[in-house]
Amino acid sequence: MVQKLLVLGIESSCDETGVALVRCEAATGSVQVPALLAHALYSQIEMHQAFGGVVPELASRDHIRRVLPLAQEVLIAADCQLSDVDVVAYTRGPGLAGALLVGAGVACALGAALGKPVLGVHHLEGHLLSPFLSADPPQFPFIALLVSGGHTQLMRVDGVGRYVLLGESIDDAAGEAFDKSAKLMGLAYPGGPLLARLAESGNPKAYALPRPLLHSGNLDFSFAGLKTAVMVQAKKMVAAGGVSLFEELPRAQQCDLAASTQAAIVDVLLRKSLTALKESGLTRLVVAGGVGANRHLREQLNAACAKRNIRVHYPELHLCTDNGAMIALAGAMRLQSGVQQASMAYAFDVKPRWPLDML
Ligand code: KG4
Ligand code: ZN
């Protein structure tokens, strides 16, 4: 019988505390996808909303409060004891240094107390592998479009830990473009999902907004200029409407600018993804990270890929944004594939900046 490992995963890189338990096969080279037994999440969004964005010090302090109760919650849900845990995986980076230190500190303290090894995981690798927990898991190799709050990257993925960066944003990430445009429209932090909701009733062709770097000849992105264009357009609308705030404009106009902004972001993500697929000759696309929850992005990608016989894989909607399940999963998959071993050295560090292709 194949020996099984119970991996506890801890995510604390930004404003969500996530803890999860997965069970995987201990055999190196096993292709069995680890099973998610339980996961629990606490989002700090409400606390940060009053400040219009994440306050790093408050984030760290809140992770401290949440992480152990969440660990107890998942152990109970999975009907496991703490002593059953074989490996403790945690997010080592990238992210907010203080927030990462909380998860790393708790993980290494648990490991030391239990006499079990620990494993530092790359947050973006967690996102990238998260579709393996979906009902329709991908197979290697594939192109990955990673669209989180802080990163926009296209990767060629040949296996666990085998990542080649094809292109990335040279300034703002797609998530930032959503959030910053939403802020200009008077929407609360993080505005991405709220802007997307407004956009549902708007006309995406109402305002001509730039598609930055669309014809750059490479797979890089740039979204900072788009945000400026949205700001200029919003100011024009406010002046023409004789109001003092964007949110005082007729709702139809607000929806139209939201829809036009979303269309510009999605258009660039779609076209660059298709170019990456064409150039690589690969026929699978994996979309991961918070912006991967965007309905318009999913519709556009699904339609374009269906025409080209390309399979698209997404994480389950509730695992698109930050969570502990993806960290436990990535830790388990790294162990199974043999690219990393868990360590009994509990002197930890974190990597607030950490390129995924440097793993
Ligand atoms: O991956 P994630 O949870 O955090 C990071 O690792 O950064 O991504 C968060 C980002 C935020 O920018 C948020 O506004 C965006 O994902 N987001 C969305 C949607 N849901 C989350 N953007 C557009 N449409 C959505 N439905
Ligand atoms: Zn993330």
Give short descriptive properties of this protein.
359 residues; 2 domains; alpha/beta; Nucleotidyltransferase, domain 5; 5-stranded mixed sheet; 10 strands; binds 5'-O-[(R)-(carboxyoxy)(hydroxy)phosphoryl]adenosine; binds zinc ion; 19% strand; single chain
What can you see in these coordinates?
This protein is an alpha/beta fold. It has 2 domains: 4-130 and 320-358, 2-Layer Sandwich (Nucleotidyltransferase, domain 5); 142-314, ATPase, nucleotide binding domain (Nucleotidyltransferase, domain 5, 2-Layer Sandwich). The protein is built from 10 helices and 10 strands. The strands form 2 sheets. It has a 5-stranded mixed beta sheet with strand order 3-2-1-4-5, sandwiched between helices. A 5-stranded mixed beta sheet has the order 8-7-6-9-10, with helices on both faces. A hairpin with a 4-residue loop joins strand 6 and strand 7 (152-159). Helix 2 (56-77) runs parallel beside helix 3 and helix 8 (251-280) packs parallel to helix 9. It is globular and about 70 Å long. The protein starts with a strand and ends in a 22-residue tail after the last helix. The mean pLDDT is 96. The structure holds 5'-O-[(R)-(carboxyoxy)(hydroxy)phosphoryl]adenosine and zinc ion (ZN). Residues 14, 127, 148-150, 175, 178-179, 190, 192-193, 196, 289-291, 293-294, 321-322 line the site of 5'-O-[(R)-(carboxyoxy)(hydroxy)phosphoryl]adenosine. Zinc ion binds next to helix 4.
